[in-house]
Design a protein that fits this description.
Strand content: 15-25%
Number of strands: 16
CATH topology of the largest domain: TIM Barrel
Distance between the termini: 31 Å
Shape: globular
CATH superfamily of the largest domain: Metal-dependent hydrolases
Number of domains: 2
CATH architecture of the largest domain: Alpha-Beta Barrel
Radius of gyration: 21 Å
Length: about 425
């Protein structure tokens, strides 16, 4: 994807603080934008002199930062908000959601998808890595930048792995022709045949496509692969086939299939061995953690310190509203800032600046869009959000982390998704 700013009028946006992420915060800062592209970032006075003919928009007492990147989401499950209480087991929840999905209609899925997209925009996300399993293409219109990952399972499909991969690849190609970001999403190692994973890995590397999958999410998945038993193992039964063949962990299983690589973004990764860390690091895989979903299931502790020490690229995502607890009578909403706060509450030593990198530059790298999104820098897309900023602000990242509610403004690809008042 390349931004095109030819013939576009230049505009300067001013804010109390500008937080580029890749460099320190700028007090009384500004961003020069032409069309869908950022031209310059700096002090207001400096850019006003450099671009004297630009039109200006002073956003006032706000911090301006890159739009947030949600690295793992299921927008089509937005309609399932509040329908599931935290289950006693991961397998029980899988059974519940399989039953719920069977009653969904194309119209209900698209309506839920649109509501989820609107929630993300309202709370600061400008790009989402969205897993599509049932919704029919094309996607509903939205200002949100969507990286569409088309889900494949296969263990209960009448089609062969070769047919599934070929059919999905044709859909991805059609999306690419419409300038839509898209890639593969084999669901999980327990739900996808070995051949499907192998074919996905080979084709994705050849086409230079991105892949995402759920890996090592639950203790039940880990037990299925390492011990060949447990509730997930028993529920899948004959459909399991060779999904857990060969022994070892889920990550080792993916390594044997050839799916591990720098183009892979794995969701969850809660149950990891020392060998798994070495494999993920060697393959330069990115990992996305979903704090509120993790809390919903009470999964084993996310090993973020070990992953970070291994130099693995870490991101955050919302997962779906089917795995976020309701608060009283209020249904949960998709909100990446809420995910950041949930993580910070459990890990107070992790700085707000670090968490912001996870939802900006790290997520951009995971999606193969480094330098294009997740930063305020010349040449990047004009994706940004603005949040209220007090006059006494000494840490712009902390101000962002503590913000609750809608953003003041959101600009996606140079267009207002949430227009400032």
């Amino acid at each position: 994807m390349k931004a095109d700013s030819r013939g576009s009028r230049l505009i300067l946006l001013r804010g109390r603080q500008v937080l580029p992420i890749a460099r320190p915060a700028i007090a009384d800062g500004a961003i020069a934008i032409s069309g869908a592209t950022i031209q310059a970032v700096g002090r207001w006075r400096t850019l006003r002199r450099a671009f004297p003919r630009a039109s200006t928009r002073d956003l006032g007492a706000v911090v301006i930062l890159p739009g947030l990147i949600n690295a793992h989401c299921h927008l089509e499950y937005t309609g399932l908000a509040g329908q599931f209480a935290p289950a006693q087991s991961f397998t029980t929840w899988l059974q519940q959601i399989v039953a719920a999905k069977a009653t969904a209609t194309p119209a209900s899925l698209k309506a839920a998808w649109r509501r989820g997209a609107d929630q993300l925009i309202r709370t600061g996300t400008t790009t989402v890595a969205d897993i599509l399993s049932q919704i029919t293409l094309p996607l509903p219109p939205t200002p949100l930048r969507v990286y569409a990952f088309l889900e494949m399972t296969g263990i209960r499909s009448p089609r062969s792995p070769a047919q599934l991969v070929a059919t999905t690849a044709k859909k991805i190609e059609r999306l690419h022709r419409r300038r839509q970001l898209a890639g593969f999403s084999p669901h999980a190692p327990y739900s996808t045949p070995v051949e499907l994973l192998q074919r996905t890995g080979r084709l994705a590397r050849r086409r230079r496509w991105r892949v995402t999958t759920h890996v090592a999410e639950s203790a039940e998945e880990f037990e299925m692969f390492t011990a060949g038993r447990g509730p997930l193992h028993d529920w899948l039964g004959k459909w399991r086939g060779n999904a857990d063949g060969g022994g070892g962990s889920p990550v080792e299983h993916l390594n044997r299939t050839g799916l591990l690589g720098a183009n892979l973004l794995v969701a969850h990764a809660n149950c990891l061995t020392r060998q798994d860390l070495l494999l993920l690091r060697r393959a330069r895989v990115s990992v996305v953690h979903c704090p509120r979903s993790h809390e919903f299931f009470q999964h084993p502790a996310f090993p973020f310190s070990r992953l970070a020490a291994a130099g693995i690229n870490l991101c955050l995502g919302t997962d779906s509203l089917a795995t976020i607890k309701s608060s009283g009578q209020h249904l949960p909403e998709l909100d990446l800032l809420a995910e950041m706060r949930a993580f910070a509450e459990k890990h107070p030593r992790v700085s707000a600046a670090t968490l912001l990198r996870w939802v900006t530059v790290n997520a951009a790298r995971a999606l193969g869009l480094a330098g294009q999104i997740g930063v305020l820098a010349p040449g990047a897309f004009a994706d940004l959000i603005a949040l209220p900023c007090p006059e006494t602000c000494t840490d712009a990242a902390e101000v962002v982390l503590q913000h609750r509610g809608p953003v003041y403004a959101s600009l996606i690809h140079g267009q207002w998704a949430v227009a400032p008042a």
